[in-house]
Amino acid sequence: MSAPVPSLVSEGLWRNNAALVQLLGICPLLAITTSLVNGLALGLATTAVIVASNFTVSLTRRWLLPAVRILVFVLIIASLVTVVDLLSNAYFHELHETLGLFIPLIVTNCAILAQAEVVASKRPVGQSMLAGLSTGLGFAAVLAVLGTIREIIGTGRLFSSLDLLLGGTSVPGPLNLPFDGMLVMILPPGAFFALAALVALKNHLDARHRAPQAEKAPERAADSSTA
């Protein structure tokens, strides 16, 4: 089964974004995105797992028995999450301590299992990895944007703990903005508010994009009937 490369990329990044359209992986979206660094770090970890699981599933798809394929998918994903967890603990220990349980919880992200079942089990390796990369980056972008919004409005700062994401490399301090912030944006309700705003913005942009096409449809139908 083949698909155009631009279609695979836009599908995961925008049209069928796992966080904004499918609303999958809501737990980390709402819980860990209190800062840009937290959101981006978990998003990149999730992306790595999606790409690696799509690669593995696509590579072995011809030998998987249909009756046990879901069990095998879960075992593959759990093994890859364990690898990511151990590597992050070894090389980004302080950031790993900050993210805590949310790295192992990547196993429960339905977007990864959906990619394995719908994409990787039916497409060749190259397309599966590209689809996984676009889906992961789309998910990571939403996490990063949510973290940015909540950090700015909630604390009046940006780029807090950036050194943790760079493995302890010394970086300038956080950007302090000229206001104290609103506590509600750091709390769970703030995550709901920010996510709802992003979903509404995407729906608005999609509607604006579809409007010209809808206006041209009757004209094309009239032209074809006269022809």
Describe the structure.
This protein is mainly α and 227 residues long. It has one domain (5-226). Helix content is 69%, strand content 2%. It has helices spanning 5-15, 26-31, 36-60, 69-91, 93-99, 110-120, 125-155, 162-165, 188-226, and strands at 157-158, 175-176. A two-stranded antiparallel ribbon has the order 1-2. The radius of gyration is 20 Å and the shape is globular.
Give the secondary structure arrangement, pairings included:
Elements lengths: L4 H11 L10 H6 L4 H25 L8 H23 L1 H7 L10 H11 L4 H31 L1 E2 L3 H4 L9 E2 L11 H39 L1
Task: Please sum up the structure shown.
The chain has about 230 residues and is mostly helical. Helix content is about 70%, strand content about 0%. The chain has one domain.
